[in-house]
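An instance follows:
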Amino acid sequence: MQLLPTQDEVLALLRESGALRNGHFEYPNGLHTDEYLQVALAMSNYQTAKILSVGLSRKLRENTEIRAILSDLSVVCPATGGLPVAYGIGEALRARKVYWAEREIEGGPLQFRQFHEVVKGEKVVLVDDILRTGTKLTQLKALVEECGAEVLGLAVMVHQPYPGCAEFDPLYKLATLNTTYWNADECPLCKKGEPLTKVLV
């Protein structure tokens, strides 16, 4: 496998690790689908995490502006799903710092912990494991910019967009999953009586 794995190689790694699986799933928003992705399962294996992190870091290095400031670059992610990706990318890029934002209460705003926040003029890349709706990453981008930092791009392991997913430019990704989603009353798997598994995002 090359330092920059192909989409097929990435999807194969995700399947081998159990991160990408087929079946009949219901997401928290009520949509049904025939495949489910949980990148954390892949990132829990050190070798797989290293391959994916190095691969995504290579995508970022293709940007001349990012490549020129690696020692001053910081990585920012939403907790908790983005943390393994952020530290993997941070190590591969030898970035300056890793930050994360979290919610104190369910449904509350993303925020940095006290004394652990980006500063005015800092250049950052946002990272996460999956881009589905883009809601959390849109909030994270706004939070970073409110602090006066400059967002140079967004990097995710996999782009698996819901209908109406937010758009980011530039967007760096290792693979795209064009997953089909159905409302429960239109789901062909429900009509076949396939067992349903409710999943967390």
